[in-house]
Amino acid sequence: MTMTDHQSGGEPHHFTAPVIQDNPTGWGPCEMPDQFKDMPYQPFSKGDRLGKISDWTGAAFQDKKYASKYASQFGSGSQYAYFHDEDESTFHLVDTTRIQKPPYQRGRFRANQRNMRGRGGRGNMQTGGMQSLGKGLKARDTYKRSQVKRWGQGRPQIKIRDASVTVKPDWSTIEEMDFPRLGKLSLPSIKDGEDTICCGELEYYDKSYDRVNVKNEKPLQSVNRIFHTVTTTDDPIIRKLSKTEGNVYATDAILATIMCCTRSNYSWDTSSRR
């Protein structure tokens, strides 16, 4: 087919028809075009949402609702996957065999034994001031250690402390409370306490004792004091208050002992009088 431009009067223009791929056995082109060879193909859909360029946390969604928000409906291909090939050219095996000790140490020890036998005899053999045990003594020592470990003889013995009060058979039990019950005991009906009288003497306290440590020493000073440890009935202030106020009295030492009774290791008792 030839086309001629009559107005310009030039040479005729030739029309070249394109190459048509004819596939008699199927549909579509028979060969891959040169510009599309060796090009990876990733299936896509126009309905997919655009996400990040590089998202390494895409598979780590905690909420399943957003797990496939930016995922493709065709899935991810393996053409962009990274495969690490191990380089075994620099691989070396490590020698883990046990290093054997030189044999001259054992021979030297045996030679010393023979020399000691020749000097002092078999019965007077001494090696460095220590006596070596024979097979029978070693077996006996091993047996003793196993028995001690088995029956717990090596453990510290638990001291059984005597009770502070000997319970007589003719006594009648009014009420008994165990430690868990005392720990959970609560008295909501009791109000906050009020100070009836303030007595005693508050002396000066040297705060330099609070900074005492290994590097900062401070010698202790002995003071001649008399600490009166009296019972409740012998306390003159409590005896004075018992005439006008209250019906149950106790000293601070007795109250502290009762409050710490669930943690006490020693036996103690209190006496109550009407």
Automatic annotation (TrEMBL):
Any GO MF annotation of the entry: RNA binding
Keyword annotations: Cytoplasm, Initiation factor, Protein biosynthesis, RNA-binding
Domain of life: Eukaryota
Gene name in the database record: EIF3D
Protein known as: Eukaryotic translation initiation factor 3 subunit p66
Annotated segments matching region Disordered: 1-20, 114-139
Organism: Anoplophora glabripennis (Asian longhorn beetle)
One Gene Ontology CC term in the entry: eukaryotic translation initiation factor 3 complex
InterPro entries (alphabetical): eIF3d (IPR007783)
